[in-house]
Amino acid sequence: MEKKGNIPNATITRLSLYYRRLELLEFDGYRMVSSDKLAWLCQVNPAQVRKDLGYFGEFGVRGVGYDVIDLQVQIKKILAINRDWNLGVVGIGKLGSALLEHENLSVRGFNCVAAFDNSPRKIGNVLTSGLKIRPMQELKQTIRDLEIEIGVITTPASAAQSVANLLLGSHVNAILNFAPTRISVPSCCLVENIDFTVLLDILSYKLHHPSKNQRTRRTDS
Amino acid sequence: MEKKGNIPNATITRLSLYYRRLELLEFDGYRMVSSDKLAWLCQVNPAQVRKDLGYFGEFGVRGVGYDVIDLQVQIKKILAINRDWNLGVVGIGKLGSALLEHENLSVRGFNCVAAFDNSPRKIGNVLTSGLKIRPMQELKQTIRDLEIEIGVITTPASAAQSVANLLLGSHVNAILNFAPTRISVPSCCLVENIDFTVLLDILSYKLHHPSKNQRTRRTDS
Fold first, then answer.
1. A171 — pLDDT class (breaks 50, 70, 90)
2. What's chain A's average pLDDT?
3. Structural domains in chain A?
4. CB distance B218–A187 less than 8 Å?
5. Cα(A163)–Cα(B99) distance, integer angstroms
6. Chain B closest CA to A138's CA: distance in Å?
7. Are B198 and A13 in contact (CB under 8 A)?
8. Does any CB of chain B come closer than 8 Å to the CB of residue A20?
9. Contacts of B153 in chain A (CB under 8 A)
């Protein structure tokens, strides 16, 4: 089904967004959606939608559009989110705790199955989710026992690299990094960094340049 | 200094990332950096760096590169982060509390100056940061008094739209939305949504397609 060649990162991100929008369309009772409408809802252009999906096959019917449920199934397959993934969260401060309770994660098949911290005050505490906070010494064994494939770092910046090293040493090759610092990993490993201050910079820019922003958006009036 | 026309969103995002990388270069003692090196550090191509900066003027010296400190000053000006912004956070659960304590926000000039919640259990409580949680009824007046220009929504999904409406009604035209739902705003308003499950989808895709990922990355060996 899948064409050869590298798929741009931006395409993968957009597939994820199309999927979320298709869920809402299904919830609203839609059976079919045109690429024009899906594009409009996702704020991209229709040619982009067709190109993104075109990397992976022919999903639409010309002149009719996409089947809302079928396209969700196809995107889930492409993104490999038609299965569950087990996550381990390291650093159980407020952010780590918030993540472990986040309503969206398990709904999307991302199961936080273990929580780790190095603070004696926290180790052994049972979280709202029912998980008990484990010491870092149990990381390697727990990752193996619970088949954890994605590590989530919610430590302070200063601890992030050493935690990343421990995860990599335990054969976790994918990391979601919330710590406000970049971490170095070998090329075989995957890291996605979350830095929401970048989004604040974007808001700052747009607040400062309102006319530009207005020109790029639809007007209501 | 600034050229006419719309600046792509992706350019603004990259400027924010260049800025972060320049900070690290300065910290490491670098005075100058070539566009090739800056591009390599940021994992984009050098032509992209030159194009992004080219929207706003001529900052480099041909054959020499960019002055690490001067370029930071220029990008801060462009992004309007050479000034502070006041933020109000609505929804003081674990995520809201984590944000209010986040080491990166005030460092970057984003000052959380007010916290709001509608829970009688929480209203009046004093947070680690020293802020007292205010009732929603005080939102409008507080926004005016403290000159809040950016609203941060950390409520559950079900409350996000009504909080957005309250913020807009109080003339806050920029929203950072952490709630796991999209919110509708008129075209004069700015929203940036944070959905880290999209990043997990990207990790999922790449874990499932390791060869593609390896082809797109530098190898260490």
1. very high
2. 89
3. 9-79 (1.10.10.10), 85-197 (3.40.50.720)
4. yes
5. 21
6. 24
7. yes
8. yes
9. none
